[in-house]
Each structure stands twice: as structure tokens, then as C-alpha cells.
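Appendix B. One record, verbatim.
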Amino acid sequence: QVQLVESGGGLVQAGGSLRLTCAASGRTSSITKTAWFRQAPGKERDFVAHMSWNNGFTHYADSVKGRFFISRDSAKNTMYLQMNSLKPEDTAVYYCAAGQSPVVSYLGSEYQTWGQGTQVTVSS
């Protein structure tokens, strides 16, 4: 099994930056893709960013493209989400997720393991 633990959330002013970290442990050799999702109060969970581990392919939701960047340190089994130019509408609980099939997907149902989430609050 794989376990994921997020960290790095917090309160930041609009225009600021945060870097979220997701540490993977357990059977990390089974991971083929990771993604970040977010859920704002009263709203559905939304896809934010994806990375394929075999070739480094990345994809972003239109709402964060050019501001957020997903990366990975394979030696540390750690994933990151660098968030720049934050906006109040970015306020949400952010979750990292790991999947075990190579199919590129932006659907939460394609990811088998989830972290506990970390709160990001952007003040105006």
C-alpha cells in the first residue's frame, strides 16, 4: 500500500506564493501518476495538476495554468505543488493523490490513494 502525507498549506495574501509537499511512503514503486486536487467549501473536488511518473508529462487545470507548477523529487518520493500569484478563489483544501495505472487522467476516481489534505487560505 501507498501512504501520502501533505504539508505546506497556510494563510497567504493574494499575490503570494506557497509550496505544498506530498510525501509518499510504502509501496511507492506501484505509483505511475500523481495529481493535486482541491475542494472549496460547498463545492465539488476539482482537478488542479497531474504528473505522469514514467515520462514527466504534466497537465494543469485552466484556472491555475501558468501560476501553479507540479514537480517531483524521485529520490525522496516527494511531490510538490508550487503555487504563485495566489488568488482568493484558490482557497480550498488541497489533496495529493497517487494512481497505479499509466492512463493519464484528471478524474479523482482514477487515483487509488489520497492524502489527508492541507488547507490553503488566500486573503484579499
